[in-house]
Amino acid sequence: MLMPRYSIGLDFGTESVRALVVDIADGRIAGRGVDKYAHGVIDRELLGSKVALPADYALQHPMDWVESVGHVCKSAMRQAKAEAKNVVGIGVDFTSCTMLPTLRDGTPLCLVDEFRAVPLSWAKLWKHHGAKEETDRINQIARERNEPWLARYGGVIGLEWFFPKVLETLNHAPNVYDKAEVWLEAGDWLVWQLVSGPFPRCSVDALVRSTCQAGYKAMWNRQSGYPSREYFAAVHPRLADVVATKMPGKLMAPGERAGSLSEAAAELLELKAGIPVSAAIIDAHAGVPGAGVASPSTMVMVMGTSSCHMMNSRIEQLVPGIAGVVEDGILPGYFGYETGQASVGDAFAWVAKTVGLSHGELNERAAKLPPGSGGVMALDWLNGCRTPLMDGRLSGAFVGMTLNTRPEQLYRAMMEGTAFGLKWIVETLREAGVPCRRFCASGGLPAKSPLLMQIYADVLDARIRIPESQEPVALGAAILGCIAAGTEVTGYHSISQAIHAMARWREDLVYRPDLRARKESCMAV
Amino acid sequence: MLMPRYSIGLDFGTESVRALVVDIADGRIAGRGVDKYAHGVIDRELLGSKVALPADYALQHPMDWVESVGHVCKSAMRQAKAEAKNVVGIGVDFTSCTMLPTLRDGTPLCLVDEFRAVPLSWAKLWKHHGAKEETDRINQIARERNEPWLARYGGVIGLEWFFPKVLETLNHAPNVYDKAEVWLEAGDWLVWQLVSGPFPRCSVDALVRSTCQAGYKAMWNRQSGYPSREYFAAVHPRLADVVATKMPGKLMAPGERAGSLSEAAAELLELKAGIPVSAAIIDAHAGVPGAGVASPSTMVMVMGTSSCHMMNSRIEQLVPGIAGVVEDGILPGYFGYETGQASVGDAFAWVAKTVGLSHGELNERAAKLPPGSGGVMALDWLNGCRTPLMDGRLSGAFVGMTLNTRPEQLYRAMMEGTAFGLKWIVETLREAGVPCRRFCASGGLPAKSPLLMQIYADVLDARIRIPESQEPVALGAAILGCIAAGTEVTGYHSISQAIHAMARWREDLVYRPDLRARKESCMAV
Fold first, then answer.
1. B402 with A410: Cβ contact below 8 A
2. Which residues 344-383 of B are in CB contact (within 8 Å) with A?
3. Looking at residue B465, what DSSP letter applies?
4. Confidence check: pLDDT of A517 > 90
5. Which of A121, A178, B374, B414 has its CA 20 to 30 A from that of A376?
6. Are strands A464-467 and A505-511 parallel, antiparallel or unpaired?
7. Could you tell me if B400 lies within 8 Å of chain A, comparing CB atoms?
8. CA B71 to each of CA A340, B59, B81, B123: distance values in angstroms, whole numbers, following the listed order
């Protein structure tokens, strides 16, 4: 019997990092490790300080990532009873846009004595919301100059993205901006530590940036690169050369080999030096390969409090209101589309709270109702509309109530509302010429509400598949690590072959459109 | 000291009759009597029968009215310690359209042996809903023939009105229709019993019909009378001569003297024969004089589960969607307008039930909110829209919700929704050239929710007054009895003088528009 060979997926979340040791032959999870970051989300006061941080700050400690990744990697390997020599690749996913300023040797600026007490020198977590004014300015100048890249983001740059956070630092902590030699995503920093570090030994020549993070969060495009010097100068004169002087690195797609595990990093993880490491990927996007989706035109819906939908396509179209279309954004060789619905689970929770009933009770009652919720229709914009309108000021609605309308009809209507919200997104993509043929639902909601999945299947008039893995994101990172190892090592001749071998859809659970339900629904109207 | 002189108001409701003995000098209620009808609403089975009535049937027993009115009149007089010789007039209000077929001597057909077992020979209560198909036909033929009177009812004849109930009888119990010598409103029948009966001694020459009931429920108009023979023939050949052959009687306005108390009726009530009796009025409409409203352009809002608004005007205009405009419909000499909102208290109750909180709790929380309900707006059409759209198929809505929207914001928004519904009605009247200057709120809701009244004052930008009387309907009937007695007896030189002497608005409670609230509301938008 051949010894199994493994890929390691490192999944950096908001509160903790998770490592999976995965058999590359079939995707079996051989070992698992999870570790909470020592300092978690830093949003009250800076370490060793009593000064309260502003309410919209959310920072992280880079050493937490390094220390925790050592723990989880070792414990996952132990659980797998795997030998280090059988690990063929490493993949890394990370929250985004979580970013930080460093020196050219990889040292985070916040760990330089001079800056320890300066909040904006620390790593800013994705949900750090300090850059409101900066975001407005970045959007305003882009609109005024009619920047061509704006359309790739549905016309709006987000508060949580990369350059708003850079500009916030330039405005509010200019010496941090001055001293920063490298501005980069945390995922890219982590990969840099693995292939060239850990700091302070990193070489800037070994720095690789992910096309995923750069494309979705930093307005980068394979054809035209980052926004122009002229644009940045118009935003702020001192930002003009930010790309040329402070953003070194080579861009690579997730699944491409960013480098090999360095001796020092191998020591930290108790692995062998030289193992291929994939370019990083945003955590949500790792869920695409992790859900067993290799082919274009299959939408992966990550459904939780909000929903994020990702899809690869061979076709590039500037679709209205998408959160982003990025070449090599999810998998190499494809245009990756990201769209979203701003409140899904949150909308159901709002209804449940408003009517004072539990999700369990409401699901049970709503499941007994025919489609159409007795004529009640809901608009799910309780947190604004992301795709396709990209307007956070919009709000939700219920119409069609009578004196006989019951709470479960409102609840079901809200479910139907989110389903029609998704149908609108799918039709917007299709009308723009981007095919969208298959659907796969992951995240927390599908397991919680089979009714919701059935409604989606009915409304989309399509089968909805469920990934086999409960951890599609970390699994996706491991798959990318395997792909980075290359055909000669893994025997997989294509990305698609690797994905299909390592991740699958459930065979025992497929939501199919119920023709009778569709008929009843038409009759009810 | 002069002995006080009294007028008696007889108020026939759905379940009981109420008598007030009222001092005509100042409207003081000297005595009161209430009695439940022995058989109440007959909606399960006919007396002495085991055959179930159809679900939409609601009948009454005419003898209940006669027996109960004797009891209440006597007990009110006893309580007042009033002498019969000091009673100067009697007024009668009645639910409408409650109607019945009789012989020419006043005998209800249902009391003739041959018909006792025939449900449709009995008095049909206002909420008897058996005439659905007949209502459709009556409306359809009116529209096809472009009948000019249809516009006086907002373009729609109601299911509960007079001719639908007659036609239902013709269709489903033709022998009842054949044998009926007189079809009339219960209020007119009761007045006939007082001035010429009780049956079987009534003379058809003494029969007086109220312009209120005839105008609002039987398509009668002072200028053109009832619909034409040709119209009725088109509805049903055998209905052609219904007015000429089965609807004798002289039309008089409420407050006009229909006749004098007969000897036999005086015995029944233990009063003196010869007392003037006013023509009948619909119960809701009696609330206009009972609320102290004598002048035109003052809207009396009767606010309960639904709202009914009545107003006298010197001007006749066919306003879209009004429930009726009737000359002499409420008080002699004016055009009486009736408009309505189909769910008001019912809409608040629906919200309370849906969110699982009490009205008390919701009122308390909603009162602390600024106007505008945090951006939530409600459409109160949970039971359709009466005025001005006259469409029972319409339904309600909430718009503007976010994840932070609280139940009390939905509740307050519904209050604001009904206020704007009323504002729309007022503007519809004004735009049609019918002035609407003052507002008076009666019914159950104003006392229950001062917040609601304040919202109405703010939205209407007008003071809202509250009638002093808790029983404005029965008081209104008494005032009409006083008016019918005439100037020589009462000393009142005008209807207006009598109303203002006997009914007033509260001085201690006036809802005034809160200019700051209006400003906040504008700022919130």
1. no
2. 346-347, 350, 354-357, 375, 379, 382-383
3. E
4. no
5. B374
6. antiparallel
7. yes
8. 72, 22, 15, 21
pLDDT at B34 over 70: yes
A402 neighbors B395 (Cβ within 8 angstroms):
yes
Place of tokens 């109160």: B380
Q: Quick check: B403 pLDDT over 90?
A: yes
β-pair type (B87-94, B182-185):
unpaired
Q: What are phi and psi of B396, to 5 degrees?
A: -90, 170
Sheet with A123-124: strands ordered across: A59-60, A123-124, A99-102, A182-185
CA dihedral sign of residues A337, A342, A346, A347: negative
The answer, yes or no, to whether the previous bond of A237 is cis (omega within 30 of 0) is no
For the beta carbon of residue B204, count every other beta carbon within 10 angstroms.
Answer: 16
**How many CB atoms sit inside 10 A of residue A487's CB?**
12
| B196/B208 Cα distance (integer angstroms) | 10
pLDDT tens string A145-172: 999 999 999 889 999 999 999 999 999 9
Q: Across B67-125, where does the E strand assignment appear?
A: 87-94, 99-102, 123-124
Cβ–Cβ contacts within 10 Å for residue B267, how many? 13
Burial of A515 per CB tally in 10 Å (0-12, 13-18, 19+):
exposed
B375, B398, B403: residue with CB nearest A343: B403
Q: Interface pTM (ipTM) of the complex?
A: 0.86
pTM assigned to the model: 0.88
First-residue to last-residue Cα distance in chain A:
62
**Cα separation of B128 and B165, whole Å?**
9
Cβ atoms A428, A410 nearer than 8 A? no
- The H or E element that residue B378 is part of is strand B377-379
Q: What are phi and psi of B309, to 5 degrees?
A: -115, 130
Three-class SS of residue B400?
Answer: strand
- Sheet with A438-442, strands from edge to edge, namely A324-327, A335-341, A307-313, A298-303, A438-442, A464-467, A505-511
Q: Which amino acid is at B445?
A: L
Partner-chain contact B347 A398, CB within 8 Å: no
Condensed to tens digits (0 to 9), the pLDDT of residues B470-510 reads 999 999 999 999 999 999 999 999 999 999 999 999 999 99
Closest CA to A5 of A502, A506, A505, A504: A502
What's the CA angle centered on B440, arms B434 and B445, to 5 degrees?
Answer: 125
Phi, psi (5° rounding) for residue A341?
Answer: -120, 125
B408 CB neighbour count, 10 Å cutoff: 22
Residues 6+ apart with CB under 8 A from A508: none
Q: Which residues of chain A have a CB within 8 Å of the CB of B354?
A: 355, 405-407, 410
> Other C-beta atoms within 10 Å of A39: how many?
12
- From the list B292, B387, B373, the residue with the least C-alpha distance to B338 is B387
Run of H or E including B249: none
Q: Which two tokens stand for residue A62?
A: 């880079």
- Dihedral over Cα of A373, A378, A382, A383: its sign: positive
Average pLDDT over residues B274-283: 97
Distance of CA A483 to the CA centre of its chain: 19
Q: Return all residues near A436 (Cβ < 8 A) that are at least 6 apart.
A: A297, A299, A311, A426, A429, A430
Q: How confident is the model at residue A520 (pLDDT cuts 50, 70, 90)?
A: low
Chain B positions touching A407 (Cβ under 8 A) are 354
Q: Which residues of A touch B396 (CB under 8 A)?
A: 399-402
Distance from CA of B99 to the nearest CA of A (A): 29
Q: DSSP per residue over A87-141, as a string? A: EEEEEEEE-TT-EEEE-TTS-BGGGSGGGTT-GGGSEEPTT----HHHHHHHHHH
Q: Which of A36, A33, A55 is nearest to A45 (CA)?
A: A55
